[in-house]
Design a protein that fits this description.
It is globular, with a radius of gyration of 22 Å. Helix content is 27%, strand content 26%. β17 and β18 form a beta hairpin. By secondary structure, it is α/β, with parallel strands linked by helices. It is built from ten helices and 18 strands. α2 packs parallel to α7 and α3 crosses α10. The strands form three sheets. Strands 1, 2, 8, 9, 10, 11, 17 and 18 form an eight-stranded mixed beta sheet that branches. An eight-stranded mixed beta sheet has the order 5-6-4-13-14-15-12-16.
């Protein structure tokens, strides 16, 4: 069934009796060409592009819970491609272009809203860094605009421009950035993959790998063994635990990242704003709530909850940037488990085990990378060759002395 305005009107006139289930609930088959472990945005996007771009439809997506029950539904929905390094910027720009055509591709309303993102700077050094990054973005074919304080005032009049400790000198704007509805992205990719014959199997946890002679032949699950020619891991914060079942130790740590939303307010922010004097990013949802987050919790954890010191730190940053929200009530908070790599950049690559592939280490960048990650992972699985914009996202880059350190602050996950 294709969705359209005409379909909505017709179903409304006949009591909404003609809608079909969004996807099937199949039982797992004994064998597939490709098994994708993880039913979040990246796993479902990979399945969609495998079927739609490469014509490989004998694919299963295995999810231990329900589709989108992990980080896909636990983020702040920001979409951007404002990166600096040549190994990152082309990839995220590819992802941005896929975002721009996503709703037409999926025939699903992902609520993509290109309202822009502005990274504030508060010192001459931060301004110079913003100029450098903006020039790198322009050279890679992205969009970037350097704004002075007057430009920021016109865009965001509710910020604190009289703060002597954190003066706002200007910001780097990417007008094409914005937000998308995370649940709708998951549902759209799931629906599109299912329509092409991919099996989406929920409540099916992978408990081990079937490895023979150095080759992965399939997986053990809570719903029985399933064989496959290729197995693709794509489980975000659970990457280390999953891959340890194949005897692999990853250069990844799992940390909690908390996010928050306030009660609904009248429109005060046109897009996404990041606070350069502290780690804070904030936007306003379609319901009026302010959606914001900040630093990781400082300890390793697989729990989808955080601790109070980070709550205080994030709220302090929000108050320093926008004192007028001090009387707003916090509506809810949640945590996602981030797979933090040692240089803050991801992995899309083969492993040393034939037939076993890995996608992870997305740190803060997982949601915005969803289309690009799925597109490049599908390319790797279909051709056994890395996509040109993802060729540097290899697991062995640390042993080769080729880290991709976007922030340049050291090989520690808590710094990225």
């Amino acid at each position: 069934m294709r969705y359209s305005g005409f379909r909505v009107i017709m179903e409304g006139l006949r009591g909404n009796t003609g809608w079909q289930p969004v996807w099937r609930e199949p039982d797992p088959k004994p064998e597939y060409d490709i098994i994708i472990i993880g039913g979040g945005g990246h796993g479902l996007a990979t399945a969609h592009y495998l079927a739609g771009t490469h014509g490989i439809t004998n694919v299963a997506v295995l999810e231990k819970g329900w589709l989108g029950s992990g980080n896909a539904g636990r983020n702040t929905t920001i979409v951007r491609s404002n990166y600096l390094l040549p190994d990152n910027q082309p990839f995220y720009e590819l992802s941005m272009k896929l975002w721009e055509g996503l709703e037409q591709d999926l025939n699903y309303n992902a609520m993509m809203s290109q309202r822009g993102i502005v990274n504030l700077f508060h010192s001459d050094a931060q301004r110079d860094a913003a100029v450098r990054r903006g020039n790198a973005m322009l050279m890679a074919g992205a969009d970037a605009v350097l704004l002075d304080q007057d430009g920021i005032r016109r865009m965001c009049p509710w910020l604190d421009y009289d703060n002597a400790r954190f003066p706002i000198h200007g910001g780097l704007l990417q007008p094409r950035a914005g937000t998308a509805r995370h649940d709708a992205v998951v549902w759209g990719y799931a629906r599109a993959a299912d329509a092409r014959g991919v099996d989406l199997i929920q409540n099916c946890e992978v408990t081990g790998f079937h490895i023979e002679g150095g080759t992965c032949r399939g997986v053990e699950t809570t719903r029985g063994p399933i064989r496959a020619q290729k197995v693709a891991a794509c489980v975000a914060g659970s990457s280390s635990r999953l891959m340890s079942q194949a005897g692999m130790r990853l250069p990844i740590e799992s940390h909690v990242l908390q996010a928050f939303v306030s009660e609904g307010l009248k429109p005060v922010l046109p897009g996404v704003v990041t606070f350069g004097a502290g780690h804070l990013y904030i936007s306003q949802s379609d319901k009026g709530g302010l959606v914001f987050g900040g630093n990781l919790d400082g300890y390793n954890s697989y729990a989808q909850r955080g601790n109070l010191p980070v709550v205080e730190d994030v709220c302090e940053g929000a108050m320093a940037l926008m004192p007028m929200i001090g009387r707003a009530r916090l509506l809810r908070m949640w945590g996602g488990v981030m797979d933090m790599s040692m240089d803050g950049s991801p992995f899309i690559c083969k492993t040393h085990i034939d037939g076993l592939y890995f996608n992870g280490g997305w740190c803060y960048g997982g949601f915005k990378a969803t289309p690009g990650s799925g597109y490049c992972y599908a390319h790797l699985l279909a051709t056994d060759q890395p996509h040109p914009v993802a060729g540097a996202f290899r697991l062995d880059r640390f042993t080769r002395g080729a880290p991709i350190d976007e922030k340049g602050e050291g090989a520690q996950p808590n710094l990225h």
